[in-house]
Amino acid sequence: MQDPGSWYIRMMIRKGRNALGLSQRRIAEEIDRSTDTVRAWELGRHEIPAHSIENIAKACGLDDEVVNYMLMVARARRNGTPIEADMRYNALLLALGEEHAGDIFKWDALLIPGPLQTRNYHYTVAREAEPGTDQWVDSGWNFKMARRSAIEGRSDRPKLQFLIGEMALLLLRQKSTQLYREQIDLLRKYSKRPGLRIRVLASAVRANQSNFDIYRPGDSRLAGPPFVYTEGHDWSRCITDPAQFGSYDDFRKARWKQAIRIEDSRYDD
User: Fold this and answer.
1) Angle at CA 90, nearest 5°, toward 73 and 64?
2) For 230, which of 30, 76, 125, 212 could close a Cys bridge (C-beta 3.0–4.6 Å)?
3) Using one digit for the tens of pLDDT, what is the confidence trace for 76-107?
4) Half-sphere exposure of residue 70, counting CA atoms within 13 Å on the CB side?
5) How far lies 29's CA from each of 7, 25, 34, 49, 169, in Å?
């Protein structure tokens, strides 16, 4: 099975080409390659050479940010190292995972996961946690809404588990009862969607276990290989090592059983 980096590159080529309504033959002509070569790249039968990534990405209409991330991924794969990048860049891989992975687990001890945030939460609480210019904050909100739309628009039925630290809710309630009420209402609304479950963890965890995501193929035909995403103060990383993956999955299994459903009355006003 291919690694997440290889999967990301070929899937973004496919996604960009389809968005433009272009055939594989047309792209092949644009970059002076054979149609069979482009088809093999998209199917993962052959790797896209690093020196060809930028040309084909541009031909498929992908923007500079996506192209730069694809090149970062290619370098990490060539060096045999984990995909380490600015959180904004690795978020591009997460967004694609949310579109295609069949089994998704998201955990955060202090913040509501991005696709489940209300607008007011993003512009107040999330902005304090991730300060930036007005343009940066607006861009972040648009990105979160695109991710939410992708999840809502899936024709299959992926399994989605969102685990939120109770501290995230306590901090929000201290800030504003109105913000708290809006956010709880939205969480409860989404917990009713088929295949989507939200729970709250009241127990303490170690600092190095405070946030991560797990993506697994499940029954999705277009999903990539399993990987874990985690981040620290100034870094983010995608992990595929089976031993490390297993330790994160053990946390998921244990803590999910301990957690409380968001529908529980203790989270009413």
Assistant:
1) 70
2) 212
3) 777 776 666 556 677 888 999 999 999 999 99
4) 27
5) 23, 6, 7, 17, 54
What span, in angstroms and rounded, lies between the C-alpha atoms of 186 and 105? 18
Distance CA 214, CA 163 (A): 12
Q: Which of 65, 89, 88, 61 is nearest to 5 (CA)?
A: 89
Strand partners, 62: none
The whole-angstrom separation of Cα 207 and Cα 80 is 28
What is the DSSP pairing of strand 103-108 with strand 236-239?
A: unpaired
Tell me the pairing of strands 211-216 and 260-261: unpaired
Find all residues with CB under 8 Å of 3, minimum gap 6, and list them: 77, 225, 227, 240
Q: What pLDDT sits at residue 85? A: 59
- CB hemisphere CA count around 20 (13 angstroms): 17
